[in-house]
Structures are given as structure tokens and as C-alpha cells.
From TrEMBL:
Its cofactor is Mg(2+). It is an enzyme of class 3 (hydrolase). GO terms for biological process: carbohydrate metabolic process; DNA repair; glycolate biosynthetic process. The keyword Nuclease does not apply. Its EC number is 3.1.3.18. Transmembrane segments: none annotated. It comes from Pelagibius litoralis. Keywords: Carbohydrate metabolism, Hydrolase, Magnesium, Metal-binding. GO terms for molecular function: metal ion binding; phosphoglycolate phosphatase activity. The active site is at D17 (nucleophile). This is Phosphoglycolate phosphatase. Pathway: Organic acid metabolism; glycolate biosynthesis; glycolate from 2-phosphoglycolate: step 1/1. It catalyses: 2-phosphoglycolate + H2O = glycolate + phosphate.
């Protein structure tokens, strides 16, 4: 896929989504979901069902799980269920999770090319920080914005703009790498170039998700970023 020259511009930083982008974290989210629903007397949904509920943060995930179980809850019971999910998930956020192939090497290559690196996820900060550390990539990530860092979550552009600000890089010089419709909408709203990871948790065909470039293996990402940077290259 070649990049339209009209979108090319100097790139100084790459910001990544987390779930379904750097980390295949759905197995741990699924395990926590099954435990939460089990405690409430429901048989858990399968991995694909839970994966389809990931992307808008924990409150939306828990709401979707309870709706799936056909459990009607009032706002205070929902709040308690969200709190219980946090407790369960935070006990072992990385037990079954793995980096996608090539992630570590790619972070090394991008950082050696002088790019600043950050993460902007809808996962809450505590388990996100834990996951980065447990999987050994926290040293590459200068800025981490979680789903509870600001009052707004993705697809609101503010978390991504906040991450850019934390890196001290203008939004025009950022590439955001994500796996979902939510990430694409966030990048678009923030005016940030978007690289779509095709192997994550998206629900729609690739062509339905706005992006400036896409990739299906991490070995391809550095050259995609170089293409986006165009003639002026990486700064
Ligand atoms: O917690 C979620 O719902 C998804 O997190 P993500 O933004 O890292 O994909
Ligand atoms: Mg994601």
C-alpha cells in the first residue's frame, strides 16, 4: 500500500493503542469477564464475544457483559460491577497476555531512529502500566495515557492530544497506531496520521476504517512510518 503524498509530513513520535495493538490481551479480559459473570450466576461468554466488547474502556465492557447476560442493573449496581471487574482484572492483567510478534524489536527500531514513543489506551492506568512492565516494554514508553487519565476516553481526541503534549510533540508530527474503529475515529478527530494494525480487535473490514496506512506484521511498521514521513523523513 503506498501512502498518498498529500498526507506525508515529518514524524517525530509514534503513539500506540494497547489492547489488540501492542498486546493480545483479550484472553485475560475474557478470563476476568467469565469470573465476573460466574459470580453473578451466569455462564461466561466465549473469547470472541468478549473480544468484540473491548475497545471503549471497562465501564462499556461491563455494561456489554451484563446486557449479554440479560441482567438488568440500575446505575449503582453497574458501578459496583465495574469496581468488581477492576479488582478481578487487576489481580493478573498479564497472565495470559502476549505481545504481538515483533513488537519489542519494532519499538527498539523506532526508538533507535530517534522517534519518541507513547501509549494511549482506554484500559485504566494501573493495569496498563502493569502490562507494559510485565511484558518488558515499559522502558520504551515515555508517556502513558489510560482510560481513566482524563474525564474523556477515545474516540474523544483529548487523550491522544494529551499523550502528544506529554511527549512535547505537535499532533501533526505524530503517527497513532491502533487496531480499532475507536482508534481511527480518535486519530481523525485529533488530526493525527493513523496506521491501522489489521490483526487486532476491529469489527469492520479494513476498507471501512479510515486510515493513512495499514500493516499486518510488526516487521512492516518502521517502513510504513518512513513512508508517512515522506521526503522530510523522521525528525
Ligand atoms: O480497555 C479497552 O476497552 C480497550 O483498550 P485499548 O484502547 O487499549 O484498545
Ligand atoms: Mg485496541
Amino acid at each position: 500500500m503506498s501512502v498518498d503524498r498529500a498526507v506525508q509530513r515529518p514524524v517525530k513520535a509514534v503513539i500506540f493503542d494497547l489492547d489488540g495493538t501492542l498486546v493480545h490481551s483479550a484472553p485475560d479480559i475474557h478470563a476476568a469477564a467469565v469470573r465476573l459473570l460466574g459470580e453473578r450466576g451466569h455462564q461466561g461468554p466465549d473469547l470472541a464475544t468478549v473480544t468484540g466488547f473491548v475497545g471503549n474502556g471497562v465501564p462499556a465492557l461491563v455494561e456489554r457483559l451484563l446486557a449479554w447476560a440479560k441482567e438488568a442493573v440500575d446505575p449503582s449496581a453497574l458501578k459496583a460491577a465495574i469496581g468488581r471487574f477492576h479488582q478481578i482484572y487487576n489481580e493478573a492483567p498479564s497472565a495470559l497476555s502476549e505481545l504481538y510478534d515483533g513488537v519489542s524489536g519494532t519499538l527498539e527500531t523506532l526508538s533507535a531512529a530517534g522517534l519518541r514513543l507513547g501509549v494511549c489506551t482506554n484500559k485504566p492506568l494501573v493495569p496498563a502500566r502493569q502490562l507494559l512492565a510485565d511484558l518488558g516494554i515499559d522502558g520504551y514508553i515515555e508517556v502513558l495515557v489510560g482510560g481513566d487519565s482524563l474525564p474523556q476516553r477515545k474516540p474523544d481526541p483529548r487523550p491522544l492530544l494529551h499523550a502528544a503534549e506529554g511527549l512535547g510533540v505537535a499532533p501533526e508530527a505524530i503517527v497513532f497506531v491502533g487496531d480499532s474503529e475507536v482508534d481511527a475515529a480518535t486519530a481523525q478527530a485529533a488530526g493525527v496520521l493513523f496506521a491501522l494494525f489489521a490483526e487486532g480487535y476491529r469489527k469492520s473490514p479494513l476498507a471501512m476504517i479510515p486510515h493513512q496506512t495499514s500493516f499486518s506484521q510488526y516487521g512492516q511498521l518502521h517502513s510504513r512510518v518512513v513512508e508517512l514521513a515522506g521526503a522530510e523523513g523522521l525528525k
